[in-house]
Amino acid sequence: MFQSERLASLGVSARRRPNGLVASILWVASLIAAVAAMAVGAVLAVFTAAAVAVIALFAGVLVFLAGLAMRARRNLTPRRRAGDPELIEAHKVNGTWVAYGWDRHGR
């Protein structure tokens, strides 16, 4: 017997298919395994969709809070005192005082 003849019996076409009751049992078992795999896939898809929804919700809340922070920062401009219209704003920049508001018209 040659080497190639011994290996020929190992191929896919050389396998025998079961007949009768064993074939029916294997068919039912494969059907149950396929249904179980689809059920697991469906459950994992639902969990993935829920995770994406939660991430989207948190991202929306984060964008909302960032908008509130930007609005609050914009509204925190220095307010003038109503009693002293001659008061101007000044900041110290590199050891020199720089005044703002002195060149405005209508004062």
UniProtKB/TrEMBL annotation:
Residues passing through the membrane, by range: 21-44, 50-70
Keywords associated with the record: Membrane, Transmembrane, Transmembrane helix
Protein name: Membrane protein YdbS with pleckstrin-like domain
Gene source species: Brevundimonas aurantiaca
Lineage: Bacteria, Pseudomonadati, Pseudomonadota, Alphaproteobacteria, Caulobacterales
